[in-house]
Amino acid sequence: MGAIWVIAEPSATGGLATISAEIATLGRSLAATSGRELVGIVIAADPAGAAAELAAYLPNVRSVAEPAAQGHAWATLAAQHVAALAQADPPDLILIGAGLDGRDVAGVVSALTGLGVLANAVSLSWTDGGPAVEMSIFGGKFVTTCVFTGGRGIVTVRPKVVEAEPAPAGGAVTAVASGATLDLPAVPVVDRVSEAGAAVSIEEARIIVAGGRGVGGPEGFGLVGELAAALGGAVGASRAAVDSGWIPYAQQIGQTGKIVKPQLYLALGISGAIQHKVGMQTAGTIVAVNRDPDAPIAEFADVLVIGDLFEVGPALLGELRARAG
User: Fold this and answer.
1) The whole model's pTM is what?
2) How many domains does the chain have?
3) Cβ-count burial of 23 within 10 angstroms (0-12 exposed, 13-18 middle, 19+ buried)?
4) Distance from the CA of 40 to the CA of which of 71, 91, 301, 311 falls in 20 to 30 A?
């Protein structure tokens, strides 16, 4: 009986990426149900920080030092180490985040090991035949449940599927050597661009105020930002606003942007097309302001305010400031 592996992604500061903490929490649930060993894998130039953080969630963490990860793209290097470890001691399930790096790791590991991949999981459970994976398809219109024909494989998990929760007791970290031969070309990092963003990351925010085509231009995001500041939240946007150049891509929410799960999602001038819905449909409460009562967002918003956002928004902002005062 093989183990369940959680492949951790290091953050930009050398710690543990948030999605990896979420997946570790999910892994504990699956391990308890299936009776399988749960193992975390950390690969980095200096894996100590991320491994120590992951040990707060998992009982057994293996760290692999890869000096080439300093100055080179992480995913291809990490995938070769994961593949080597998997060939030596085959797991039944490999879990990794469905972000840019996670998808790359899953693809390379699949190519090197022959394991199948089920992508963008929104829920996982364990059956007699192995992991059963629920996936959102066709832009969120349908949910399918799939299993691996051989009972073993790789699953990429979308952000916010579970809330990260540390284990009752911390785990142990063991440094290991994967024995990998790094045959694939290393991709050098030639530049890093740091972009000033919102005070609160949209992936972490409890409250998000998002603007769409209806805000009319970059000036309209001034109101969006003021509302976000008054609520203590972050600014998000639809693809239409990003494509128009009104706001950076880092704030885009949806199928081709980020997936968020705030407690409150305030959508201003967003039609709610399926591509945007995919990124925010699991928010605790969705409040939409739109002039069109037949906009798609009306079908799934908890509260729909039919009106001009440049009338509703300032009125809401005034009320929030009055209460704060």
Assistant:
1) 0.80
2) 2
3) buried
4) 71
